[in-house]
Amino acid sequence: MICIENVVKTYRTRRGDVKALNDINLRIEKGEFVVICGPSGSGKTTLLMTIAAMLHPTSGIVSVEANNLYAMNVQARAKYRAENIGFVFQMFHLVPYLNVLENVLLAGGTVASKNKNAKVLELIEQFGLAGRSYHKPAELSAGERQRTAIARALLNNPRIVLADEPTGNLDTENATSVLEYISQFHKAGGTVILATHGVEAERFADRTINLHNGSVTDSDKS
Amino acid sequence: MTILGLIFKEIRHRKINFMLGSLAAVTAVALFVAFVTTGSAYRRETRRIMRDMGQNLRIIPKETSIDEFWSVGFSEHTMPEEYVNRFASLKGFSYTHLTATLQKKVLWRGMNVILTGILPEVLPLDKRNQKPMTFSVEPDTVYLGFEPARSSGIKKGDKIDILGKTFTVVECLSLTGSSDDIRIYGHLHDIQNILNLEGRINEIKALECLCIIESGKVPIDPLVLAETQLEKILPEAKVILLQGIAEIRQKQRAAMEGYLAFLMTVIVVVCGAWIGALAMTNVRDRQQEIGIMRALGYGSGKITLLFLGKSVIIGLLGAVLGYLIGTTLALNFGPDIFKVTAKAIRPEYILLAYSFVAAPAFACVSSFIPAAYAVSRDPAVTLREE
Questions:
Q1: How many CA atoms lie within 13 A of A120 on its CB side?
Q2: Chain A contact for B1, CB < 8 A?
Q3: Long-range contacts of B67-74 (CB under 8 A, 24+ apart)
Q4: Can you give the C-alpha Rg of chain A in angstroms?
């Protein structure tokens, strides 16, 4: 279970402080598929990054299975991310000088496990990237890049997948395909938290949380 | 995928950055090697020039009056020849090239000449490997000054008679425009013999007596120190220190050392700043990778290793190429600049070992700060700024 208590995140800018998250309180159950909806600037990405142990909140507690993420030191948080979190970004964030195979395998460098190479090949096959294994990101379509990013996110068998606008740069066909892959992970028992400003992901979700100006405005069960 | 594998893939991807970083390291090492290799030639050359200015410590018989000494050019009194050996055995005194002479003005073939007997240079115990700076004269031979040779029409190889003894002329000296033009140089013992002054000299000259530091600590007036030390062992002598020559020599040496140190500092600082700026640019270019790797759970140590590993490769490449280029430059251009000591310019192999250690360490230090800063921030902040 993910528990977010009184989380506030304020960014300091030259033009003054910007409150991205304003006293957020949330509980997300294990195996739940939650969609966080809201317009640009509502705090979706900040909330996801905070849950992913990638961004210190200004105040408040973020805990997963009763572990307070920000009470851990940097190395422990990195280990936690490697073992538990799979993150899918809107901008894909693939390493430009590594090919598809190497980009997926990069995630394997943080967790000791057997048959890593076999798992990479299995994921590449599963995501329809077998013919593109040795292509660099610059040689891939947007859909292929995002599928590569999802394969990378799933390599270490994470318990939680956090996806930040994963379909934001994709056409409808590729967007549906990506959401289906994420849905498959959810159906296999994984927890998914997906941030989007569209509505297409809501049909896969157990619950939709609406964010506006850094505050939760309502939370609907699908 | 190994860290080394990632480093090489990144180098292939960002060739220009790598080439510029390597160029900075190669330049730094090449300049260092070239300056150090030619620097020793420069020191030797300067020493040679300074040495040619002549000896600056003169020890003369105690009863000599200063007005007499400077008006005649030498003392008309004598002291024991044995003093030169006593002086040579003195410890804690930075002298060298001791020359004992006996000079006397005589009338020879109707002209005034200065008969000058010279003993071969005496070197202190700890400086026995030094080459003599003054010429020595073999027994039964003479070096003839310009005027006696010219006025008598004497040539090299001629036999001449001086005060009843026959000598062979081994050299007729060229015009110097000084009192040396009326000198006849012979071996000290020959001159003592014809002047009936066996075992006597009237001057000991020595070089380089300014850089004296008593007990290795406090510099004191070298003339005072020389007088104090020599008074005990040479009671019949007095000391004249030619401050001008000594000071010029000292100042020139200090200026040379200071200039070399300044040049090396400038080279090291400029190249360090260059490598640091490139490392900073590289870190900025790689914000996305740093963010991705941190998001994937890579620790800051592994990510820092990616940057430092690249710096080590740049440093090693800089060490090898820089050493080769620096040595080639020194060997090709050094002999043209330092003609007198050209043969002494050789490859300094120890510099390759120094470069192998210093260049990677230097490159690592330059890139450590930007890398450490990049990995110290939250991954989300790094990705957001990308």
A1: 20
A2: yes
A3: B69/B240, B72/B105, B73/B103, B73/B114, B73/B179, B74/B101, B74/B103, B74/B114, B74/B202, B74/B203
A4: 17
Please report residues of B whose CB lies closer than 8 A to that of A109: 1, 296, 298, 302
Q: Residue A105 and residue B1: Cβ atoms within 8 Å?
A: yes
- Residues of chain A in contact with residue B381, where contact means CB-CB under 8 angstroms, are 55
Per-position DSSP letters for A93-158, written without gaps between them: ---TTS-HHHHHHHGGGGS--TTHHHHHHHHHHHTT-GGGTT--GGGS-HHHHHHHHHHHHHTT--
Contact assignment for B288 to A93 by CB distance below 8 Å: yes
CB B94 within 8 A of CB B58: no
Distance CA(B111)–CA(B146), nearest Å, equals: 13
CB pair distance less than 8 Å for A56 and B298? no
The distance of A120 to chain B (nearest Cα, Å) reads 13
CA angle A158, A164, A168 (to 5 degrees): 130
Closest partner CB to A96 (pick from B1, B13, B380): B13
Q: Which residues contact B331 (CB under 8 A, 6 or more apart)?
A: B37, B345, B346, B347
Residues B37-69 pLDDT 10s: 887 777 777 766 666 666 677 889 988 988 888
Chain B residue with CA closest to A51: the answer is: B380
Considering only CB atoms, which chain B residues are within 8 Å of A107? Answer: 296-297
- Is residue B328 within 8 A of residue B320, CB to CB? The reply is no
ipTM: 0.89
Separation in Å, CA of B381 to nearest CA in chain A: 7
Could you tell me if B293 and B374 are in contact, meaning their C-beta atoms sit under 8 angstroms apart?
no
The alpha carbon of residue B95 and the mean position of all alpha carbons in its chain are separated, in whole angstroms, by 16
- % helix, strand, coil for chain B, step of 5: 60, 15, 25
What count of residues does chain A have?
222
Query: Do residues A57 and A7 make contact, with C-beta atoms less than 8 angstroms apart?
Result: yes
CB contact under 8 A, B1 and A109: yes
- As a whole number of angstroms, the distance between CA A163 and CA A160 comes to 10
Length of chain B: 386
Query: How do the pLDDT tens digits run along chain A, 222 residues long?
Result: 899 999 999 998 888 899 999 999 999 999 999 999 999 889 999 999 999 999 999 999 999 988 899 999 988 999 999 999 999 988 889 999 999 999 999 988 777 777 788 889 999 998 889 999 999 999 999 999 999 999 999 999 999 999 998 988 888 888 888 899 999 999 999 999 999 887 788 888 999 999 999 999 876 665
d(CA B230, CA B228): 6
